[in-house]
Specification:
Strand order of the largest sheet: 1-2-3-4-5
Strand content: 35-45%
Largest sheet: 5 strands, mixed
């Protein structure tokens, strides 16, 4: 299966858009630009290995298998 790649800072992370909607990807991009100045998020970002994008949420999967849900609506 081919995944998109999301580039944030100096890291590229595979992204699977399960919603298959351009609108959800645009909301995700907007939300990520807003998070660019959040120091806590940037610390978490170093350990993200995969992102699933749904219609109203982005699910970040970390290296250790844990997940973090971010509301994008």
């Amino acid at each position: 299966m081919v995944h998109e790649v999301f580039l944030f800072g100096k890291r590229a992370v595979p992204l699977e858009n399960r919603a298959k909607a351009l609108n959800s990807r645009n909301r995700f991009n907007t939300r990520m630009r807003a998070m660019a100045d959040d120091l806590e998020f940037r610390r978490r970002w170093k350990h993200v290995s995969f992102i699933e994008l749904w219609s109203d949420a982005a699910i970040f999967q970390y290296d250790d298998g844990t997940k973090w849900y971010m509301n994008i609506s």
